[in-house]
Write a structure and sequence with these properties.
mainly alpha, TPR-like_helical_dom_sf, membrane, single chain, two-stranded antiparallel ribbon, 20 helices, SusD-like_N
Length: 512
């Protein structure tokens, strides 16, 4: 009777999961890939099948804009002091007033999107060595597996920072039969794994990926290269569970050895080029392209071109390639007064005009309609989405130096990004002590990386959530009233309730 009950749950779960398949054509079966002589389904029948699946993996970041980018900015910017939700509703407002619950639709799609991506990486990692095709060389097998492991690490890094203890899935569930159900059940309903173990798996994937992934290509920053692995290693070693600032410095320096450095003009990272530069922006229409792709500062990015454009741009403001397109309703990620005040405290900061733009619009939820600010780092359908860039890693090196008491070394790094922004070096008072240099450091990361999905995670990593976020509601007149105060349980978010309902082995995070 118990077996029948489990089978019915599994059937219901699998039926529900069908709607989450992002690439049904990529799903293997005995129809698409065939079976072996012992009737075992073949996952990849030949090299061509492997290459098709590899391409799917390489495009995961680009095609998953909702959970990779749109919702990540809602969390990292609107759930911090950088932005308001922008378009108040049941899904977005909880992030700005700290009332997020497990029923939040955005969190559900993020969880499902990430887990679907993990499943696709696991398929290649687990089955590429079984491909019976002599044209698929050992070097290619190692490279493609390394790329998949780097991608899996990137996915889990986002997941563990959002939810803490999450299921660690590194295998592919087999078919369900009466003989295999006891073995298969945990694969379909995995329990949570503690965050430290998740980080250790991320570390292992990145170190293994680093051995065989391709070298950085200056002409193509969409690849899961050794440099992507190095950047992620620098970021995970800055996090509390694995904190090792010596390794942060090591991988930051290795990235410099790979040829990464700051571009001279900050505007090149997010700017656009007008076909007719003398025409006012209000008259531009479809006469635009990204100013630059594959810069020496970009480590990993998704690129968009005519025919395959970046649709999320109109979620944040005006898409400059089509001035009036979808500009009739409220946009997400409205820059906060507190962030604008911080930008204005540094007179002449060139990053301000690249991060915030003011338009006239038809709504006045947070600001007067005739002078309304919008997030500006994704301004046309051809702008790249930059997941990793060198300035982030370089500043993490400054954080590592601060931890070692090398305040002058940290200031020298901070001054690099400041000078690029048109600002003078930090005053000598900034290096007078730990508190002073940390304030300068956090402010610099905030301005340099505004609207790039970093702010919330910086506050969490450095234990600044309560100090910063419980104070911002009183000093930022445009932010709606705080529902719950931030505390130690606020550092991770609730697991989607629908996911818990489907998986009896999951437990809700404390405080939700």
């Amino acid at each position: 009777m118990k077996s029948k009950y489990i089978l019915s749950i599994l059937s219901a779960f699998l039926f529900a999961a069908c709607s989450l398949d992002y690439d049904p054509i990529d799903t293997y079966s005995d129809v698409t890939e065939g079976v072996s002589q012992d009737s075992v389904p073949v996952v990849f029948k030949d090299k061509a099948a492997v290459l098709l699946h590899r391409q799917t993996l390489l495009e995961r970041f680009k095609n998953g804009q909702e959970h990779w980018y749109l919702d990540m900015l809602l969390l990292a910017e609107s759930h911090s002091d950088n932005a308001y939700a922008g378009a108040p509703n049941a899904e977005t407002t909880p992030f700005e007033v700290n009332s997020i619950e497990g029923s939040n639709i955005n969190l559900r799609r993020d969880w499902n999107g990430h887990m679907a991506n993990v499943a696709q990486t696991n398929r290649l990692i687990n089955f590429i060595d079984d491909v019976n095709d002599a044209s698929l060389t050992q070097a290619e097998r190692q490279q493609y597996k390394a790329e998949a492991k780097i991608l899996r690490a990137m996915i889990y890094f986002d997941m563990v920072r959002i939810w803490g203890n999450v299921p660690l899935v590194t295998t592919v569930a087999g078919d369900i039969t009466s003989e295999t159900i006891k073995d298969v059940y945990p694969a379909y309903f995995p329990p949570q794994t503690d965050a430290l173990t998740i980080y250790q798996q991320i570390e292992e994937d990145l170190l293994e990926g680093l051995q065989y992934a391709p070298d950085n290509s200056a002409a193509d920053k969409t690849q899961l290269s050794k440099s992507v692995a190095r950047a992620l290693l620098a970021k995970i070693y800055a996090e509390k569970p694995l904190r090792d600032y010596d390794k942060v410095i090591k991988y930051a320096d290795e990235l410099a050895g790979d040829g990464f450095e700051l571009v001279e003009n900050f505007g090149d990272l997010f700017g656009v080029t007008l076909t007719d530069p003398n025409s006012p922006a209000s008259q531009q229409n479809k006469a635009i392209d990204a100013k630059a792709r594959n810069t020496k500062e970009t480590i990993y990015e998704a690129q968009f071109f005519p025919g395959n454009t970046n649709w999320v741009t109109w979620m944040y403001g005006r898409p400059l390639n089509d001035w009036t397109f979808y500009f009739t309703w409220l946009k997400w990620i409205t820059p906060s007064r507190d962030l604008i005040k911080t930008f204005n405290s540094e007179v002449g900061d060139k990053r301000y005009q690249e991060s915030v733009v003011f338009y006239q619009c038809d709504w006045n939820v947070y600001y007067p309609a005739d002078n309304y600010p919008f997030m500006y780092k994704c301004r046309s359908a051809y702008n790249s989405i930059i997941k990793l860039r060198y300035a982030d890693i370089l500043l993490l090196k400054a954080e590592a130096l601060i931890s070692k008491g090398d305040y002058n070394g940290a200031a020298a790094i901070i001054n690099q990004t400041r000078r690029r922004a048109g600002l003078s070096n930090l005053p000598s008072s900034a290096t007078a002590g730990h508190e002073q240099i940390m304030q300068a450091y956090l402010k610099e990361r905030r301005l340099e990386l505004a609207f790039e999905g970093q702010r919330w995670f910086d506050l969490v990593r450095l234990d600044k959530v309560e100090e910063v976020m419980n104070a911002v509601y009183d000093k930022d007149e445009g932010r709606p009233a705080q529902v719950y105060p931030f505390n130690s349980l606020s550092y991770i978010l609730p697991i989607p309730q629908d996911v818990i309902d489907q998986n009896p082995n999951l437990v809700q995070n404390p405080g939700y």
